[in-house]
């Protein structure tokens, strides 16, 4: 399930900063629909060459919620080919853990599917649908991506602006514990 955006910009794109979108297409059972640009925010995440074809990369961002609070927002982007990217929220629908929790990777050995390293679930790269494993039939949450001036940009998510968007390391993960 690809979600794409057309973006209007004036001036250079800076990673970690907001830009204005013209509109983006979202999937529906009947096809796709274009969402008006009034409320769309676009953030440059990384340069498109930072992800090699057939590879995936994780990013630690902060999403702004309705109450204004910034919360961690982990995503990953897969570069399917020279010009094709897909992105998902880094959460397995089985029990809401990161997909890359133990091995650091997102793809099966043959790079044909997305893999949950904790539960061995496998997902279709294009649609995010679980094809095998404990959450079979469930789907990953897709992200709208576009390329602007050579940068992979995330669309339609309200992020906290940060000049230093962080790429997650492959083999480690940060854990935050918040007492209730």
TrEMBL record:
Signal peptide: none annotated. The keyword 4Fe-4S does not apply. It holds the Pfam family Rieske. The keyword Lipid metabolism does not apply. One of its GO terms (molecular function) is metal ion binding. Keywords: 2Fe-2S, Iron, Iron-sulfur, Metal-binding. Residues 43-154 form the Rieske domain. It comes from the Bacteria. SUPFAM superfamilies: ISP domain (SSF50022). This is Rieske domain-containing protein.
